[in-house]
Amino acid sequence: MDLVELTRLPLAVWVPLAALLGLVLGSFAGVVVYRLPRRLLGEQGLGLCFPASHCTTCQHPLRWWHNLPVFSYLWLRGRCAFCNAPIGLSNLWLELVFAALWAGCVLHLGPGREALVWGGFFSVLVVLCFIDAQTMFLPDVLTLPLALAGCVLALAGWTGVDALSACLGAGLGWGLLAGVAWLFERWRGLPAMGGGDPKLMAALGAWLGWPALLPLVLFASVVHLAYALVLTGGRRQQEVPFGPALAVAAAFYWICRDQPWMSLLTGGLSAPLG
After folding, report:
1. I need a surface site. Which of 120, 158, 187, 256 has the fewest CB within 10 A?
2. Cα–Cα distance between 170 and 204 in angstroms, integer?
3. What is the chain's Cα-based Rg?
4. Largest CA-CA distance found in the chain, in angstroms, rounded
5. How far apart are CA 122 and CA 15, in angstroms?
6. Any residues with CB less than 8 A from the CB of 263 and at least 6 apart, and which?
7. How far apart are CA 132 and CA 231, in angstroms?
8. pLDDT tens readout for residues 210-254
């Protein structure tokens, strides 16, 4: 059976397989979310693949059956098998989100290149969302390659966005948030956002095209405000990351891009994304 015949299998086969792939990728994403920021901030001896998975409390290496997505967490009842320390819910949520994400891409786009491309895009967004929510940090090693990939794949015709629109989206997206941050800092003398937010906006512009920038800013602002009110209870002193709001806005735009009301925000210039 060749690849073409495989793609003709019914969605009832492909969607569970995509969800299973999402669970596996989500399990690795949990490692990335935990280790990458610490490695970039100078923690020694911590790579993405080495040392082997271990309990962060007692440092005991985990058995292979302790790393089974979702099942291991439920079987261990959310606690380490060796020291009984509670295991955070972050990894479980990541695995479930990745499973839903990949199953949704295959269900919406069908099995094939488009599902792989957009599944990869949203997977990186989810990782960035979790990292920013936990550390207030958006690593350049993820945002910049994501922006470059958006431009390259647009040039190859894999994202449904014109290459010029992708490049303009990257440049204008970065300039828009960087400009807002600079003006706010000059006005109030306080930083408005971190340096990673404009780079993430550049990546979103590269993948979604420059007409998406205005809707993204509007949606992200609403999500950020709601998120801030829930997270801080109205306390202005607490900083709230903007990356998760941008990620949610990007997903919302991608899902609703064909709705007639979306053209009011884009001037009818939305690209026919995959």
Report:
1. 187
2. 7
3. 20
4. 64
5. 17
6. 270
7. 14
8. 999 999 999 999 998 888 887 766 565 667 899 999 999 999 999
For the chain, the domains span: 1-111, 137-256
**Three-state SS string across 151-195, please?**
HHHHHCCCCCCCHHHHHHHHHHHHHHHHHHHHHHHHHHCCCCCCC
Over residues 123-151, mean pLDDT: 96
Q: What local confidence, expressed as pLDDT, does residue 4 receive?
A: 58
Which of 63-91 are b and which e, b meaning 16 or more Cβ less than 10 Å from the residue's Cβ? Answer: eeebbbbeebbeeeeeebbbeeeebeeeb
Amino acid at 34: Y
Is the pLDDT at 46 greater than 90, yes or no? no
Instruction: Please choose, from the candidates 127, 128, 267, the residue with its C-alpha nearest in 3D space to the C-alpha of residue 196.
Output: 128
How far is it, in rounded angstroms, from Cα 115 to Cα 273? 12
Q: How far is CA 3 from CA 8, 13, 22, 130, 149, in A?
A: 9, 15, 20, 34, 25
Collapsing DSSP states into helix, strand and coil, what is residue 122? helix
Query: Taking the CB of residue 207, how many other CB atoms lie within 10 A of it?
Result: 31
Q: Is the model's pLDDT at 186 over the cut of 50?
A: yes
Token look-up 């420059």 returns: 210
Q: Is the pLDDT of residue 60 over 50?
A: yes
Residue keyed to tokens 């090693």: 141
Secondary structure (3-state) at 61: strand
User: What number of other Cβ atoms are within 10 A of residue 179's Cβ?
Assistant: 12
Local structure of 54: helix, strand or coil? strand
Which residues have a Cβ under 8 Å from the Cβ of 167 and sit 6 or more positions away? Answer: 151, 154, 206
Q: What is the mean pLDDT of residues 188-212?
A: 86
